[in-house]
Design brief:
Shape: globular
Helix content: 25-40%
CATH class of the largest domain: Alpha Beta
CATH topology of the largest domain: Quinone Oxidoreductase, Chain A, domain 1
Number of domains: 2
Structural class: alpha/beta
Number of strands: 20
Mean pLDDT: 96
Strand content: 25-35%
Distance between the termini: 22 Å
CATH superfamily of the largest domain: Medium-chain alcohol dehydrogenases, catalytic domain
Number of helices: 11
Radius of gyration: 20 Å
Largest sheet: 7 strands, mixed
Length: 351
Amino acid sequence: MALTSKAAVMVGETFDIREYPVLDPDPDAVLIKTELAGICGTDLHNWEHQRLEGEVLLGHENVGILDKIGANVKKDLFGNDLSEGDRVVFFPRTPVGIYGFLNPADEPHLRGGFADYINLQHAEETLFKVNMPADVAVLAEPFNIGVHGVMRSGIQFGDTVAIQGSGPIGLATLICAKVSGGGRLIMVGGPPGRLELAKKIGADLVIDIAEITDPQERIQMVRDFTPHGEGADVVFECAGFLPAISEGLEYVKQSGAYIEMGHFVDVGSMEFNPNQQFMRKNVRMEAILGGRAECFMRGIPIMERNEFPFSKMVSHTLPLERVSEGFHALAGGYHLDGKDAVKIALQGGAL
């Protein structure tokens, strides 16, 4: 009997649980049995704003076990030898498209993580063998975003850092800022469960936007926590909420840096005064578009040390059949099954 794989396919605002044949990998490909696939903020915004056309097999934050290896695949991007049974993650941008954003009708069908199996083509160009638990490794892709943003920021030892957004990207950025020498660390976001985790990671000040609802009060709180009340040296926008940008620019000190990391999906436009909000403060503004394979290589050794509560960031693991519940929870208050949601991951065929 031919092997099949369940997959959760996004069709408009709904998810269909389907089955696809599990094809043997081509010589340059591998077959991965999925352990976990994270629901990314990009997935959420694409679903909310319907920015992807047709039928899409989502899932680009993946960890799994090598099930079959193509004849030409010998090593990962670190140069490690690969064997069946190895736990792996991968950089989702491949020569055949970005995994997690493709139509499953096209062979080899399983080109996204919301499935029991993944058929990863051009494996030697994107694959990493890892030595960490699955509920840590599933964060490798969001962590590489944090690595990319912090590297682009030019953060210097002892800098005061403010981060807007306490989801997985914000928390990953907090870790990266800390290991890169950030001094005073400020997190602005919510809900409380996420902010408690930020404190465990090392945030010196957390500001709950549900408690402090006035943006001007939040701006003052951030400034009051910085040397001489001048503002933060570096501010990272990881919330993906347009009004956060105008607010966050007020956190930045004269000649500081503002790093935009939260808008990988087009959610509209905003009013912006370049003279008042940007030029008069001599602000340097950067924006990153996704991660880089290099950032995986730099981030994975930090994750493998397991010095931070990475596994606590995965608040929920759900079967594929509950995918819609996960999306609605992230869109409607970050609460599911009686607790605050941080990262929601879907279970694949290896679990």
